[in-house]
Request: fold
Amino acid sequence: MNKKGSIVIITAPSGAGKTTIYREVMQRNRELVFSVSCTTRNRRPGEVDGRDYYYIDKKTFEEKKKRGEFVEWAYVHGELYGTDRSQLEHCIEQGKVCILDVDVQGALIVMKKYPLALTIFIQPPSLEELDTRLRKRGTESGEEIKLRLLNAQKAVSYTHL
Reply:
């Protein structure tokens, strides 16, 4: 009998620490598999294609979207992000625990399609601390930080997930 895998959705506003947390958890448990999302955004310093994201252009993203290759996709902070359906299904069929790092929009969609998925929302200590973290990261402009903080305010309203 083949045991089906499961899904753990980790969601949080940008800068809340979800990447740090899931990487630490995955270091401690090699049985977990990270679902690498596709994105149209530029790679940040230290990020690796195929580990952090699959970096693709908008045309390729749109083609994949039309073919139904994403479990969920969202337009976030001016860029497109999507969870690859075949990668997620393969993980489940292999009986693994698949970790998804998605925004709140994506989490809601995945939860509808996979109602048994465990959802973890990481709340930032405060919006002020989030602002400090985003500025220290140094990868976004002032306008991008404002947009991320606005989106964080909206995301925090979903803490009941």
Residues 142-156 form the longest helix (15 residues). The chain has one domain: 6-156.
